[in-house]
Amino acid sequence: MIGKSSNKVQALIRKADRMTNVVIIGATGSLGRSLHEELKDNTAYDITLFSRHAESLVLASNEKAINGSATSSNDLDSVIAGQDIVFVALSGDLPKMAFEIVSSMKYNKVKRIIFVSSMGIYGEVAGEPKGIVAPILKPYRKAADIVEQSGLDYTILRPGWFDNGQDSTCQITQKGETFYGHDVSRKAIVTLVKHIIDQPETYLNTSLGLYR
């Protein structure tokens, strides 16, 4: 019994000593930049910043930047291999990007993804027709469905309109619950993301509505 307990303690120590490898896909977007600011210079994380124009970012000591496209399997493989956490906050052809990211994660045996979608993808916003998804949100819904059905360990975030407020907490609803707000601070979103990165079992396989 003593030997087994000692082995468990040593395993926990090794885990605590190892940096968490995080790739931010969409690193030059507003949420990607906010998460980069939240995690930079923290030696608990080894950060890869991935974007079409990642070279525009000022790097901290624990970061590297790689230019590439989220629709290119080769580009994605080059940054997803070896990661612990994949954070995705993108705009554009979201279903295509989600498909390629999920495929790359499976190929590279990376399991944990945090994927930013949008409020309203289930027709869940209070005061709007229940269950009706606006056409502009259908790509966000399709991308979320791809992630949800992927077999990966996912957390889907459905934030309201984000702003530069300094509040670091927000209301959280589960899939199927009514979404009562319309905005949320970037600070609150990245605070939650950091919490999930630090405790990857948190909010596992859930779709979270975020609002103030």
Description:
InterPro entries: NAD(P)-bd_dom (IPR016040), NAD(P)-bd_dom_sf (IPR036291), Polyketide_Oxido-like (IPR051606). It holds the Pfam family NAD_binding_10. GO terms for molecular function: biliverdin reductase [NAD(P)H] activity; riboflavin reductase (NADPH) activity. It comes from Streptococcus equinus ATCC 700338. The chain is built from 6 helices and 10 strands, in the order αβαββαβαβαββββαβ. Helix 3 packs across helix 4 (94-107) and helix 4 (94-107) runs parallel beside helix 5 (138-148). The protein has a single domain (19-211), classed as Rossmann fold. It has an 8-stranded mixed beta sheet, sandwiched between helices. It has a two-stranded parallel sheet with strand order 7-9. The protein has helices spanning 2-17, 30-39, 73-80, 94-107, 138-148, 186-198, and strands at 20-25, 45-51, 63-67, 85-88, 112-116, 153-159, 161-163, 171-174, 183-185, 206-211. The chain is globular.
